[in-house]
Structure formats: C-alpha cells, structure tokens
Amino acid sequence: MKNDKVILGIDPGTNIMGYGAIHIIGREIKLLGAGIITMQKLKDHPLKLKRIFEGTIDLIEQFKPDELSIESPFFGKNVQSMLKLGRAQGIAIAAALVREVPIFEYAPKKIKQAITGSGNASKEQVAAMLQQILHIKNLPHYLDATDALGAALCHYFEYNMQSIRKNTVSNKKFSGWKSFLSENPERKLNPGKKSG
C-alpha cells in the first residue's frame, strides 16, 4: 500500500447510504469527511438506485479516492431487504467501476473486528473506537456514516497488515521440516519441554 492515498468507505443502503473518506499520509490517518446520502423521500426503488449511483459519482469527484472499500450485505432473515441492499451495493460498485476506482469488499463482522477487536461489537462501539482512532471531536449523527468510516479504516488495516507480512515472511521454499529448521533454528522446540 502506498504511503499517500485516499480511501472512500461506503455503507450501502436503500434509505440511507453512509460514506467516510480518510487520507493516509505515511502512518498518519486523516479524516477527510463523513456523512450520509438519503433516499428516504424517494418512493420509487429505481429512483433510489439512480440517487445512489449519482451520489457515489459525486463522492468520487469530491474525494478523488485511490480505492473504495464497501461493506458487504448482511445476511438477514428478510429476503426482500437483502435483495434491495444487494442492489444498492451493486449500484455503488458500478459507479466506482465507471470511474475506474479499485473496489474492496468487507463483511460487517470483519469491519467490526478490525476496528474494535470484536466481530460482535455494536455500531455504537465501532463509532466510539473510530472517534478515538481518528480524533473526531463530534461524531456524525448517523451510524451509517461511522460504519462507512469503519469500512475505509478496515481496508487500510487489512492492506497494511498484508504489506507487513510480505516484508517479514521469507519467500524461500523448503524441502521439508529439517531444511526449514536449519534455516530457522529459533523455531526448534525446547528439547527439555514436551509439547501438548
């Protein structure tokens, strides 16, 4: 991950779509903005999808993200809600594709885990942790906005960790356990202790 990039996070929805943008400069994470796009006054579902598409394009033009991180739909009991949420997510992804912004998708539990350390954290706990991490004085009124910020930050954490792993894990291939141990003597078990 390059040391200077903008990540746009989106929490899709057919009534309210949350968004949050962060700017990564070296190891510093700067909040660029967060808020919502509302479709509550629109009664017709296709019009809501049109608003999501146009709104996502506007956000891309405003923040000029290098990457877009989007929350995947939560699998609930209501099939109709799932279908609508899937459409909302698809439309936001299509807008990013039109503007050639790379897209990354994360499950809600993965985002919560990345931000709070627990995949079962509440939206309020995610918001409180984001407030600390990003030094936000006044949290956005809607939790959809902090959920979107969570998606953006989760993406940063995920790719930062992958880059650390790439730099620390050797690319050598070993023919067996003995050849691995000869190259990594610190991995040998203490012969005085039994494992298990």
What layout of secondary structure does this protein have?
Blueprint: E1 4-11, E2 16-25, E3 28-38, H1 45-63, E4 67-71, H2 79-98, E5 103-106, H3 108-116, H4 123-133, H5 143-168, H6 177-183
Parallel strand pairs: 1-4, 4-5
Antiparallel strand pairs: 1-2, 2-3
Task: Write a structural description.
There is one protein chain. This protein is an alpha/beta fold and 196 residues long. The protein is built from six helices and five strands. A hairpin with a 2-residue loop joins β2 and β3. The protein is globular and about 65 Å long.
Task: Give a quick set of tags describing it.
5-stranded mixed sheet, 196 residues, alpha/beta, disordered C terminus, 47% helix, 6 helices, globular, Nucleotidyltransferase, domain 5
CATH superfamily: Ribonuclease H-like superfamily/Ribonuclease H
Q: Spans with pLDDT under 50 lasting ≥5 residues?
A: 189-196
The succession of helices and strands, N to C, reads EEEHEHEHHHH
Query: Which range best describes the helical content: under 10%, 10-25%, 25-40%, 40-55%, 55-70% or over 70%?
Result: 40-55%
Strand content: 15-25%
Distance between the termini: 39 Å
Shape: globular
CATH class: Alpha Beta
Rg measurement, Å: 21 Å
What's the pLDDT, averaged over the residues? 85
- Looking across the biggest beta sheet, what order are the strands in? 3-2-1-4-5
Coarse structural class: alpha/beta
Nutshell version of this structure?
By secondary structure, this protein is an alpha/beta fold. The chain has helices at 45-63, 79-98, 108-116, 123-133, 143-168, 177-183; strands spanning 4-11, 16-25, 28-38, 67-71, 103-106. It has a single domain, classed as Nucleotidyltransferase, domain 5.
